[in-house]
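# nightly structure sweep
# worker-07 picked up a monomer target from the shared queue
# config: single-sequence mode, recycle default, output format = structure tokens
# input follows
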Amino acid sequence: MKNPFAEHVGFTLQMGRRGSGSSTAALEVLPELLNPNGVVHGGVLFTMADTAMGAALHTTLAPGEYCATVEIKIHFLQPVSKGKIRCSTRLVHRGSRIAVLESHIRVGRLQVAQALGTFAIFVPRAPKAKGSGGAKRRRLSK
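# output follows
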């Protein structure tokens, strides 16, 4: 699955096998990813978790189904200033409309962050034809 945003940020993304509910992402720390304090910006780790969660859930979607982030909570456990960051993600629960996933982010054996996310699962509605259906607007009388 091509992911232009992941490529822009600079990480690789590997989806698990079909139906596995898993994915991995990896990123080498670069100077442009550091905040003014010299550590990787939290948004980089959040972006890895969010993207990896979507990819893991994607392995379980039926044709025509899509997913979108509803909420993610992330715990930053250790600062990162160098090395290769790896994000492992797995599906915790999948219902018909909601899924929960977790990501563990590590540098080597050291866990640096953990995230738990909720995603919506949906089938997009077909666009309505112009002039068809919908509620008619009533004018309010003066």
